[in-house]
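Write out the 3D structure for:
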Amino acid sequence: MQSRLLQHCKFYDEKDILIVCGIEGIFLYKLTYTGAVDKKQVHKLDPLGQRLNFTLRLLKRLDGVTEWIKGFTIDEEWDLLFAWSLTETSIYKLSDGSHHFSFKDLFVDQESVITSMLYMPKYRYIVVATETGHLVVYKWETTASVITEFKGINRAIRSMARHPNRVN
């Protein structure tokens, strides 16, 4: 892949997948380690990386992305990848890379940029956080509709997490 610009990259350790997003879309790569040392012990036994050998293989380019990806988050519990641009949000199933759902024109407000998303599958809610400190809760079926909006935080919200003891 010749990429003009790499915007985001994350290693999904659970499945040994490297997720690369940018101006050309979303790509999933399989990162395979082969070496003389167990991969969990390699940083202790081979700190200089002299006996490391990695291979990187393109698994899939995710379809349904029409614009430059501005951010993404992974819901490990439900095996979902949420990716967003300024005008579009797409949801993918990570296990097979299938395009699960998307909706356009998910604007929180005109001057705000989406910084994080959180999915609550039991209620089919998506919580969107913005750079201006707003939280917006959407219900989605075939379209997204606003349930409520929270304002009053004066700083950017960079990440969100579900409480581990609650099934959402």
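The mean pLDDT is 78.
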